[in-house]
């Protein structure tokens, strides 16, 4: 018989992740199951609730599958935060996706035990998009930047910027009104926030590790997963983990360069900071890393070991990528 | 929307009044904090850290605080176009019935939010910038809806007698 | 008919039935939404869904503008600022036929320029104006109808809570939407004034002359209105000049209204307390509806009916303007029976992609999106006063308890006719909405 799974997430149907990852993934699962599994995608929180509730919705069966950011509920998933520390992630999404997925298999079972994780991943490099050119830390001084996650906010503060926390939908308006001077996001998100139209300067860090990333999880309700017929569950398993992580990298690795070209065609300036400057940034954000490590000891696990492992995984999967 | 009703009476109405004033004070605090943050942004280019999450949290708590007062004052949109021909007692009986249903719904929501607060406490969820725990705000929601249920129950006999 | 439409249709029918049986609107949506949820999913899931939903719904940054704007309105009312506006408008227009009603429209437009909510505008202006209109013997239907339609200027003239919600649901730029709505908002003001002029010309008995003031009194009331106009300049200038966001402007509006009231000694501790209670009452009413709409919308999304409707429309190969007309008609029908905020939250995920995929001969999809936003705003304004469920009319009838609601609806009808005319104009000439955006960006 046919099982229908409801997939719930917070971005609108026009978003890149919806079009280039969730839809193709759902279609793949559907067709490989020979019609046994049907996945209905509900974008833009259509099934109700607010984004911070998504994880609990999967746990409680309010939705069968959800896509969310662990960072939406700060404090709740302390281990996966290791990838969101400054200068840990790789430039390429595909590297981060594989690294986080492998890490999740070893270290995040406890953290995500209330759900069945289908895929855990992270996006590629994030950039600073600002009203004025940012070449050095001095250019960042006092710059009001919207930050994507708690740790990235602390990193920006360490670099001298004035990080502003606000919900994503507020960003275009806040930029157009000068409430903030810019935002820190990957290229992929830029068009939907119209940042390339309002901000002329984009700053990236050369090479890897890059400034930061944000982690994601595609999670399924446990009982629903365990209750599936064997053959249907096999299809899901075949499309979970690394297979899904590789698909998940697409919106960032493929759409990112497209957006970058779009911004350049508008005459926007893309600045790559120098290697020496990058070294300064790494030094300046080191206290954020140390503070996080100290915090993990209070929470009863060894952040330093996790950090070393995260870096090793990024290096391992990053071989062959510049 | 019902305004200009009789003065609140009974302890359930007074509870609603206290919660509403507390919510109002928080809302005024939210307005002042926002102004302060704007001024500080002008002067020092650094807004108050976490102003957005404080505004969300504060206005949420304020709105929850307002709910019981809204019920005590019967502030709700009711369409009486189709029941205008009913005698006063019959309309009063209908109103009493819906007030009882509202009391039940609010009691259920209070119980649900209580569970939600316990889970939020267990999961250790905090706000993004300041790292404030949020379970107590969910718990305040449970209290607020319990007060709504009480204020609604207090109305049931009065409406049944054709008052209000 | 697909079963999805039957489920959604039964839901809507049940909602109307409960409302007709005197169930409060928010409670009715909550009950039917929960019932539909139970029907499609099950009780355990519904109970889980409700665990933190009310908290997360209420503690939402974007929605925080609503209590703040309401508080500002309540402080303005207690501090006599709305009354100052009405008195000044009255001093300028009061002596002409229907002049006091025109004054209500003018005052509503000015208040709409500082307030983003139609309910708050209706309540605030209504409290100041209704007793005066009654004292001068204005026809109760005209008086309450004018206040009700004037209240829609609260959203038609930016800032506007509805436009903010539209911008968020469709990822459009709020500032551009505000710019686009400005000319149509002024057009609405003009149409309402003209409607009153025509009505009172046709039936002078509706509006007995009077209400005018002598030169000294006129100078006094015009001086008195300066603070509220200053607040308007600060709040609107701040938004357009890139100084603050709508929530910040609402907060600054609250604090400056409070400051002016305290400085002029028109507000004391008891007034502030009363304003907080009034804010609590209106806010509770709106947020109970938002909670009901949240659950009802979750049920509708679960039913899949909105998606199938969008699919069906896109498959019919209708001409673009035919689809637009169909959607606007659907909005007018929905707006008659539904809460407007709920209506757009519910329909935009369905209608928006349909519209932006069509070619109306505009420069970009963004222009189509902005133009459609203005059209949605206009139909929402219509829905706020159209029977049987017109939120503004309910607010007015709670203020004028001696006027039967049917009388107010009759008073609204001539204005509704001009609303449709204005909608037709805005559909025919997209430039009315878009030229300011094009000129300023
Ligand atoms: Na307005
Ligand atoms: Na209506």
Span between N and C termini of chain B?
Answer: 13 Å
Can you give the helix content of chain B as a percent range? over 70%
Question: What overall geometry of chain A do the principal axes of the alpha carbons give?
Answer: globular
Mean pLDDT of chain B: 90
The shape of chain B, in one word, is: elongated
Number of helices of chain B: 4
Largest sheet of chain B: none
Largest sheet of chain A: 6 strands, mixed
Largest interface between protein chains, with number of residues from each side: B-C, 66 and 60 residues
**Count of DSSP H/I helices of chain A:** 14
Distinctive features:
heterotrimer; B: 164 residues; mainly alpha; 4 helices; elongated; disordered N terminus; C: 441 residues; globular; binds sodium ion
Architecture blueprint of SSEs:
The complex is a heterotrimer of chains A (322), B (164) and C (441).
Chain A: E1 3-8, H1 16-32, E2 37-42, H2 54-60, E3 65-68, H3 93-107, E4 116-122, E5 127-130, H4 137-140, E6 144-146, H5 150-158, E7 162-164, H6 171-176, E8 182-185, H7 190-193, H8 195-198, E9 201-204, E10 215-220, H9 222-226, H10 230-238, H11 241-248, H12 250-265, E11 269-272, H13 275-298, H14 303-317
Chain B: H1 10-44, H2 51-72, H3 88-123, H4 135-160
Helix pairs in contact in B: 1-2, 1-4, 2-4, 3-4
Chain C: H1 3-20, H2 25-40, H3 43-49, H4 53-58, H5 65-78, H6 81-93, H7 99-112, H8 118-135, H9 140-156, H10 161-170, H11 174-202, H12 215-224, H13 226-240, H14 246-263, H15 269-303, H16 305-315, H17 320-337, H18 340-356, H19 365-385, H20 391-399, H21 405-428, H22 431-440
The structure holds sodium ion (2 copies).
Folded structure, characterized:
The complex is a heterotrimer of chains A (322), B (164) and C (441). Chain A is of the alpha/beta class and 322 residues long. Chain A contains 14 helices and 11 strands. Chain A has helices at 16-32, 54-60, 93-107, 137-140, 150-158, 171-176, 190-193, 195-198, 222-226, 230-238, 241-248, 250-265, 275-298, 303-317; strands at 3-8, 37-42, 65-68, 116-122, 127-130, 144-146, 162-164, 182-185, 201-204, 215-220, 269-272. In chain A, helix 1 packs antiparallel against helix 12, helix 3 packs across helix 14 (303-317) and helix 5 (150-158) crosses helix 13. Chain B has 4 helices and no strands. Chain B is elongated. Chain B starts with 9 loop residues before the first helix and ends with a helix. Chain C has one domain. Chain C is built from 22 helices and no strands. Chains B and C meet through helix 1, helix 2, helix 3 and helix 4 of B and helix 2, helix 4, helix 5, helix 14 and helix 15 of C. Bound molecules: sodium ion (NA) (2 copies). One sodium ion binds at residues 335-336, 383, 386, 389-390 of chain C. Chain B: Residues 31-154 form the Tripartite ATP-independent periplasmic transporters DctQ component domain. Chain B: Belongs to the TRAP transporter small permease family. Chain B: Part of the tripartite ATP-independent periplasmic (TRAP) transport system. Chain B: InterPro entries: DctQ.
């Amino acid at each position: 018989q046919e099982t229908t799974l409801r997939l719930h997430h917070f971005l609108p149907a026009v978003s890149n992740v919806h079009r280039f990852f969730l839809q193709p993934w759902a279609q793949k699962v559907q067709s490989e199951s020979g019609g046994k599994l049907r996945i209905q995608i509900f974008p833009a929180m259509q099934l109700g609730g607010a984004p911070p509730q998504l994880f609990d919705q999967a746990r409680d069966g309010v939705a069968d599958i959800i896509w969310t950011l662990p960072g939406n509920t700060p404090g709740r998933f302390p281990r996966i935060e290791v990838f969101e520390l400054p200068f840990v992630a790789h430039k390429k999404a595909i590297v981060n996706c594989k690294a986080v997925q492998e890490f999740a298999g070893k270290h995040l079972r406890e953290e995500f035990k209330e759900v069945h994780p289908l895929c855990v991943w992270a996006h590629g490099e994030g950039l600073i998009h600002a009203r004025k050119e940012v070449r050095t830390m001095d250019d960042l001084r006092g710059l009001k930047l919207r930050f994507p996650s708690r740790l990235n906010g602390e990193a920006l503060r360490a670099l001298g910027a004035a990080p502003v926390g606000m919900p994503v939908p507020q960003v275009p308006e806040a930029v157009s009104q000068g409430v903030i001077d810019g935002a820190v996001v990957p290229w992929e998100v830029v068009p939907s926030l119209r940042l390339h139209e309002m901000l002329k300067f984009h700053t990236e860090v050369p090479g890897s590790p890059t400034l930061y990333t944000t982690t994601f999880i595609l999670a399924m309700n446990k009982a629903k997963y365990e209750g599936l017929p064997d053959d249907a569950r096999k299809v899901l398993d075949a499309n979970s983990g690394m297979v899904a992580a590789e698909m998940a990298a697409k919106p960032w690795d493929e759409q990112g360069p497209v957006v970058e070209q779009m911004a350049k065609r508008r005459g926007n300036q893309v600045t790559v900071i120098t290697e020496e400057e990058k070294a300064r940034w790494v030094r300046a954000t080191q206290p954020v890393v140390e503070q996080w490590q100290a915090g993990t000891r209070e929470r009863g696990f060894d952040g330093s070991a996790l950090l070393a492992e995260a870096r090793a995984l990024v290096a391992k999967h990053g071989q062959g990528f510049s | 929307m019902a305004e200009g009703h009789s003065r609140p009476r009974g302890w359930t109405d007074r509870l609603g009044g206290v919660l509403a004033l507390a919510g109002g004070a928080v809302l005024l605090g939210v307005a002042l904090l926002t102004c302060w943050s704007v001024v500080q942004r002008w002067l020092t280019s650094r807004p108050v850290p976490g102003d957005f999450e404080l505004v969300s949290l504060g206005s949420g708590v304020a709105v929850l605080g307002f709910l019981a007062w809204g019920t005590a004052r019967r502030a709700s949109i009711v369409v009486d176009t189709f029941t205008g021909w009913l005698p006063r007692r019959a309309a009063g009986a209908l109103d009493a019935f819906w007030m009882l249903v509202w009391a039940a719904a609010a009691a259920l929501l209070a119980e649900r939010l209580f569970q939600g607060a316990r889970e939020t406490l267990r999961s250790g969820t905090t706000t993004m910038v300041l790292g404030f725990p949020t379970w107590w705000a969910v718990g305040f929601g449970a209290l607020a809806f319990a007060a709504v249920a009480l204020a609604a129950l207090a109305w049931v006999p009065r409406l049944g007698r054709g008052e209000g | 008919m697909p079963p999805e439409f039957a489920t959604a249709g039964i839901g809507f029918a049940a909602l109307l039935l409960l409302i007709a049986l005197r169930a409060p609107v928010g409670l009715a949506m909550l009950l039917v939404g929960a019932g539909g949820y139970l029907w499609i999913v099950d009780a355990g899931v519904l109970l889980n869904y409700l665990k933190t939903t009310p908290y997360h719904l209420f503690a939402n940054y974007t929605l925080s503008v609503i209590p703040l704007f309401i508080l500002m309105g309540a402080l303005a009312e207690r501090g006599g600022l709305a009354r100052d506006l009405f008195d000044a408008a009255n001093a300028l227009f009061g002596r002409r036929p229907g002049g006091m009603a025109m004054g209500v429209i003018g005052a509503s437009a000015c208040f709409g320029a500082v307030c983003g909510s139609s309910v708050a505008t209706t309540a605030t202006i209504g409290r100041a104006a209704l007793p005066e209109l009654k004292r001068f013997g204005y026809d109760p239907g005209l008086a309450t109808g004018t206040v009700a339609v004037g209240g829609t200027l609260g959203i038609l003239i930016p800032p506007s809570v509805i436009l903010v919600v539209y911008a968020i649901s469709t990822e459009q730029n709020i500032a551009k939407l505000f710019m686009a709505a400005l000319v149509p908002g002024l057009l609405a003001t003009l149409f309402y004034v003209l409607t009153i002029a025509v009505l009172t010309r046709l039936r002078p008995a509706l509006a007995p002359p009077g209400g005018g003031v002598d030169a000294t009194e006129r100078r006094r009331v015009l001086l008195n209105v300066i603070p509220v106009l200053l607040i308007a300049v600060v709040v609107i200038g701040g938004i357009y000049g890139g100084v603050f966001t709508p929530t910040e402007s609402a907060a600054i509006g609250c604090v400056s209204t409070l400051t002016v009231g305290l400085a002029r000694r028109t507000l004391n501790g008891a007034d502030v307390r009363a304003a907080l209670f009034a804010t609590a009452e209106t806010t509770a009413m709106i947020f109970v509806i938002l909670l009901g709409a949240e659950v009802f919308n979750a049920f509708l999304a679960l039913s899949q009916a909105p998606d199938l409707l969008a699919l069906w429309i896109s498959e019919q190969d209708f001409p673009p303007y035919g689809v637009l007309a169909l959607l606007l008609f659907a909005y007018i029908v929905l707006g008659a029976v539904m809460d407007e905020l709920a209506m757009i939250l519910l329909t935009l995920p369905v209608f928006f992609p349909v519209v932006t995929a069509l070619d109306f001969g505009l420069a970009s999809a963004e222009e189509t999106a902005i133009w459609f936003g203005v059209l949605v705003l206009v139909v929402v304004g219509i829905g706020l006063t159209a029977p049987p469920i017109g939120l503004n009319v309910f607010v007015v009838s709670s203020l004028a308890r001696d006027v039967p609601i049917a009388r107010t609806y009759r008073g609204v009808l001539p204005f509704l006719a001009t609303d449709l005319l204005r909608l037709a104009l805005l559909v025919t000439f997209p430039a009315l909405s878009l030229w300011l955006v094009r000129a300023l960006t």
